[in-house]
Amino acid sequence: MKIGKLAVLLTTLEEEELAPFEKQLEDVDFCLGRAGSMNMQKVISAVETAAKRQQIISEIVYRETHSLYHAILEALEGVTRGQIAIGDMMRTVGLKFAVVRGKPYDRDGEGEWIAVAFYGTIGAPVKGLEHETMGLGINHI
Amino acid sequence: MKIGKLAVLLTTLEEEELAPFEKQLEDVDFCLGRAGSMNMQKVISAVETAAKRQQIISEIVYRETHSLYHAILEALEGVTRGQIAIGDMMRTVGLKFAVVRGKPYDRDGEGEWIAVAFYGTIGAPVKGLEHETMGLGINHI
Amino acid sequence: MKIGKLAVLLTTLEEEELAPFEKQLEDVDFCLGRAGSMNMQKVISAVETAAKRQQIISEIVYRETHSLYHAILEALEGVTRGQIAIGDMMRTVGLKFAVVRGKPYDRDGEGEWIAVAFYGTIGAPVKGLEHETMGLGINHI
Amino acid sequence: MKIGKLAVLLTTLEEEELAPFEKQLEDVDFCLGRAGSMNMQKVISAVETAAKRQQIISEIVYRETHSLYHAILEALEGVTRGQIAIGDMMRTVGLKFAVVRGKPYDRDGEGEWIAVAFYGTIGAPVKGLEHETMGLGINHI
Amino acid sequence: MKIGKLAVLLTTLEEEELAPFEKQLEDVDFCLGRAGSMNMQKVISAVETAAKRQQIISEIVYRETHSLYHAILEALEGVTRGQIAIGDMMRTVGLKFAVVRGKPYDRDGEGEWIAVAFYGTIGAPVKGLEHETMGLGINHI
Amino acid sequence: MKIGKLAVLLTTLEEEELAPFEKQLEDVDFCLGRAGSMNMQKVISAVETAAKRQQIISEIVYRETHSLYHAILEALEGVTRGQIAIGDMMRTVGLKFAVVRGKPYDRDGEGEWIAVAFYGTIGAPVKGLEHETMGLGINHI
Lengths: 141, 141, 141, 141, 141, 141
Description:
- The structure is a homohexamer.
- By secondary structure, chain A is an alpha+beta fold.
- Chain A contains 4 helices and 4 strands, in the order ααβααβββ.
- Chain A has helices at residues 3-12, 22-25, 40-53, 62-80, and strands at 29-37, 92-102, 113-123, 130-140.
- Chain A is globular.
- The A-B interface holds A 2-5, 8-9, 12, 17, 20, 73-74, 77-78, 81-82, 84, 104-105, 107, 113, 115, 119, 128, 131-138 and B 2-5, 8-9, 12, 17, 20, 73-74, 77-78, 81-82, 84, 104-105, 107, 113, 115, 119, 128, 131-138.
């Protein structure tokens, strides 16, 4: 089971386009959300809040927050293409995000992993002056 | 038309899963390929060679090579999550890539843009000791 | 014609020192300006505003804004030497900037390119506690 | 006295263009050289060797090597625009470099500083498929 | 229990200096080693091999390799101070490393974490032309 | 004499654990302090202020500020593991810092060097949701 692919499809596809993948989605836990901001901190916060509220990760276990946080950062590296800091500079993001938790490996002991995907637009804070962007982060949990 | 989304779908979906998107693909030029290596230089080279051979970009116009090169680098930032240099350190990538060229904007003057997507696995050079990874880069051409 | 060299000279030379290069400057479009701030976002904004107001790039064509934005970022990497984010940390910049637009290649099809140069000082926010810095970014437009 | 500006002019100007600056150059120690390679290590080595051979820095005092090394790295950040590692990926540089050593401050105690500038081309390893690039690094010595 | 502090002390202290900390070391699993190279890949490999051979992590469970790998990378960021790629450029490292595995949190559910520390010298490949360097990485396992 | 090791021990050890190293500390100048913030600028400022107030560096000589500033940045790269910019994103640091100034080399001409070490915790702004972190920077002064 490919948790990364599922996270990517959850963010890039429209609801009707997702139909063929519904069966695969039954085997994982996931949540969806939107974040639009010029401020990376708010984007991170939006994902963490959604994942905790929808019980994809536990609110009180630090190792789950730690795992999710690093998966978010990795996904944001894709969104900002290596310049997370610049995320705050003049650029607005309008992003759909998905967090997927599942067991991608058959081997015993590999346990659960988490995938975070973003898809949307990045650009000048003017509608139309922007292009697509996406990112995927994966971590063991 | 979303050239980024199409590039992402071309790399993540199996052939049969791509059927619903065939109509959208008629409006763009694209090529597909595979690159598997521990060496980023070979990955870049594989994409450039494919894009030139299948005439997605012109071999003799530097501005097209320049545009593609930066789109590839941006996509690799997503693949390596901000540490392209580490791409060469102990990690093998097995990647499917897509280059899509089209006109994502309605406005006159915006002209053609190019999207490069990678999807595959990154990890230790041992089968199974790896996880999914992806990246998307977009540039005007 | 070397648009990068011209941008560099426009920022480093005093007006009287520029005299020998006046003829070369006739073949390009350029604008000059100053930006002094502890905030990278304001520096980027100052260049974009100047370039649009003096019609070096079109205000309404996104691909021109996109091209200029990435040329500015590349030049700022030189200014901050790889740590754009740190630009905001305790350091003031006092920068002269130049944007040069021209055709650096003889071959048909290469079209126009843009160069952005910065030159000035970077340092603690106390006069004298600073040293020179510069950066150059180039992109196809 | 601006050691950074002098280093920049030494790399960007032709010999005849440098004439107006000859008097300023009498107040500093400097050396010039060329480095052309796809390998950053060779570029660093070329500058260090030239600076030692022409006695701009002492070969046996580590603090001078340490100071020059960091000034070179900062200048290379400008050349590669934040992605030194990528310097090795598919891109050739053909660079002129200058090392300038002098006393840029009037205050007692500030002592000597060193400036390293690069100017040249970076691009695909095919003549013409390249554009200008430059970088400047400054350090106390 | 502070696994990071223990890893740091294991690499910086001489054997006789470590005596006061022996009791704390009984509560964790750890291994020690040395890596000297101009090549980051060999440094990573030395740590992974030592940690597997001395059974600090399991050789066959990917999530443990994944956790250790990212802890090593984080520690190397400290060693190379943000420029891992430059690790390979002209600089030799002579490093002592420690891997410590333990339970730093009292709360149920936090489970085991891993710390990787490096301490040694980095510099020109000439004895004496080098200075101290260190790094610490921590991850949940 | 190892100024880096002393800086590391000053930040990681409790007062009573430092006793065996008191004699070595007599040969260097050093100061200690604490910085707790979500803002890197405040952390840098806390170290600079402490080092000047306790006369480890001169307040009026720029080259000493310049040297300290770069040593602090290098140490922060270890603390934030290559992503200084992210230091400001959602993460609080509670850090102890030490600045050590001394002569680590026997050779004439090497003169004084400075070491900056940080040790403490980094994590979500909730007590307990954090892990250890440290960093070391060294520069000639």
